[in-house]
Amino acid sequence: MRTRIKICGVKTPGPVHHAALAGADAFGLVFHEPSIRNLSIEQAARIAERKPAFMDSVAVMVNPDRDFVRTVLDRVRPDYIQFHGEESGEYCRSFGARYIRSVRVRESIRLSTVEEEYHDASALLVDAYRGDHYGGTGDVFNWSLVDFDGTIPVILAGGLDFRNVPDAIRSIDPFAVDVSSGVETDGSKDIDKIHRFCKAVLETNREREKG
What single-letter DSSP state applies at residue 38? Predict the structure, then answer.
């Protein structure tokens, strides 16, 4: 199976264009004020409207209120919403949009149990847990804490970069990998690191296809 690639936390159109050329499948637009990657709706809309063909946009939110979600859906028109806080399954599905549910891992967890509440999620994104920090921390979590026994596609996040992503793919066999800080330099997206990350994923995919 081909492992897909999501470049999260973009702040300008340029990295999205380069990510598409490098082989990425999706990009994340962060709406969370404490984050250094936080965007206004206007900024996000400008990036989304210039996205390349066959590139999905993902609006990343942390415990957003309903009006804000509706405004993002109306003005940014993301392909997916990624709920990265403590949102319930009922809340996630109430907007009638395709959604990704994030699962922050700090203890043993079975994804089949998570699926009971988020049964209609397009994917489950597993990420490192660090208190009040919601993603983009660069922390790697212990993959063995997760029982990947579910049926919903899994996106692996948490401290990935071009050096460790091949082992992550071989070990977990995720549907997709998600990277943010691992393709940054001094808090900004680094085009060279984006290309190196995507190259590492694509080369690992080819190796696995050959058996």
Answer: B
Percent of the chain residues past pLDDT 70, beyond the cut: 94
Task: Give CA–CA dist 204/22, Å, rounded.
Answer: 14
Judge contact between 57 and 76, C-beta under 8 A. yes
Question: Using only C-alpha atoms, what is the Rg of the chain?
Answer: 16
Look up the pTM and report it. Answer: 0.93
Catalytic-residue membership of 92: no
Q: Which residue among 79, 92, 120, 127 is the active-site one?
A: 127
The answer to whether residue 192 is catalytic is: no
The residue written with tokens 């509706």 in the block is 70
**Domain 4-210: CATH class, spelled out:** alpha beta
Cα 60 versus chain centre, distance:
8
Q: Which whole number is the average pLDDT over 176-200?
A: 96
Alpha carbon 104 to its chain's center: 12
One of 8, 161, 178, 198 is an active-site residue; which one? 8
What are the start-end ranges of the H helices in the chain?
Answer: 13-22, 41-49, 66-75, 89-93, 111-117, 165-172, 191-210
* Domain residue ranges in the chain: 4-210
What share of the chain in percent tops pLDDT 90?
80
Angle at 70 between CA 129 and CA 155, to 5 degrees: 35
Q: With contact defined as beta carbons under 8 Å apart, do 92 and 118 qualify?
A: yes
Q: Which stretch of DSSP H or E encloses residue 88? A: none
